[in-house]
Design brief:
The protein is mainly alpha-helical. It is built from 11 helices and 2 strands. It has a single domain (3-246), classed as Glycerol uptake facilitator protein (Up-down Bundle). The protein has a two-stranded antiparallel sheet. It starts with a helix and ends with a helix.
Length: 248
């Protein structure tokens, strides 16, 4: 599996499970209808865990253009690979959201509110204020990228030689980023729905525009730039701060 394919598959499962929980909570007559924010944030965190488990060994599991750009600015990723990674992320997000639509199609059909249907695909602000919405997305992505940049591998130190040996944690190595996403969702997600990922928002928003649905709301293109620009700003600022703190 190539990094490109890994980013597609990892982001596919991120949106399949992340978009799936939103569908399960907001669409009419689902088993989990109206179960609330805790269900959504928990499932999104677990969706990230699944995506990282799949893509991590091959691509590093960026699954997010803001992460790829932040790592490149921090000198931890090759700028030349950015287009391939971002293309994979967008393709995976579009495929994942399409499968959610297919699986929940009966529930989409009986849900009358168009904005509720759109919420399965992309984010929207609780209070529409472009400046504060942009700041919210930037802060969420800043937190994501800054903490990721300080993740370390588990190691064992030989006391006799003072030699440090890195050890693998297998799939459990994806747990810290899942907990980070959960924390961001619970603490910072109430203003904009914490897209914090341009591919996660724009890819499914495009599919919302393309897929056939009754009583479909507008795609809210006037807002769509915020979950693209905000996360990139936040990721870039996180990388720049890390470099400044490290003296690079």
């Amino acid at each position: 599996m190539t990094p490109f394919i890994a980013e597609i598959i990892g982001t596919f499962f991120l949106l399949l499970l992340g978009g799936g929980v939103v569908a399960n909570v907001v669409l009419d007559k689902t088993k989990s209808n109206e179960n609330g924010w805790m269900i959504i944030t928990t499932a999104w965190a677990l969706a990230v865990f699944v995506g990282v488990v799949i893509a991590g060994p091959t691509s590093g599991a960026h699954l997010n253009p803001a992460v790829s750009v932040g790592l490149a600015i921090a000198g931890k990723f090759d700028w030349a690979l950015i287009p391939t990674y971002i293309l994979g992320q967008f393709l995976g997000a579009m495929l994942g959201s399409t499968v959610v639509w297919l699986m929940y199609k009966d529930h989409f059909d009986i849900t009358s509110d168009g904005e509720t249907k759109r919420a399965v695909f992309c984010t929207a602000p609780a209070i529409r204020n472009p400046i504060s919405n942009l700041i919210s997305e930037a802060i969420g992505a800043f937190t994501l990228v800054f903490v990721i940049l300080y993740f370390t591998d588990a190691s064992i130190t030989d006391l006799a030689t003072d030699k440090e040996t890195l050890i693998g944690l297998g799939s459990l190595g994806a747990l810290p980023v899942a907990l980070l996403i959960w924390s961001i969702g619970l603490s910072l997600g109430g203003t904009t729905g914490y897209a914090i990922n341009p591919a996660r928002d724009l890819g499914p928003r495009i599919m919302h525009a393309v897929l056939p649905m009754k009583n479909k709301a507008s795609n809210d293109w006037s807002y769509a730039w915020i979950p693209i620009v905000g996360p990139i700003i936040g990721g870039a600022l996180a990388a720049e701060l890390m470099l400044a703190l490290s003296g690079a």
